[in-house]
Specification:
The protein is an all-alpha fold and 96 residues long. The protein is built from 6 helices and no strands.
Length: 96
């Protein structure tokens, strides 16, 4: 799903020309802000952004992305424990 915000008469005319090739649904802009917070407020800059661009030419892209996007150990453990807890709970409930 994509969102198109028409902000001018020229934009409306353009969409009118191509709308037969698309499925369109009109929504209120206030509803859009509820589900798409990035439209109204800027997304926070990633803390590793500066390091990423500094090392982009010096390091392999894949390893750089993997290293800079790796979750801290406490968050990884929390995710694993959460998944394990859900599996255990599911198995206990399924036995009853």
């Amino acid at each position: 799903m994509s969102i198109i915000i028409i902000g001018s008469e020229k934009g409306k005319k353009f969409i009118d020309k191509i709308k037969s090739d698309m499925k369109l649904e009109e929504i209120k802009i206030s509803d859009l802000y509820k589900s798409q917070k990035g439209i109204k407020d800027s997304v926070a800059m990633n803390l590793n952004r500066t390091e990423f661009f500094e090392k982009l030419d010096k390091e392999k892209f894949d390893s750089l992305v993997n290293r800079l996007t790796l979750l801290p150990i406490h968050k990884r453990v929390r995710i694993i424990l959460g998944k394990t807890y859900k599996k255990i709970l599911f198995n206990i409930l399924r036995k009853d």
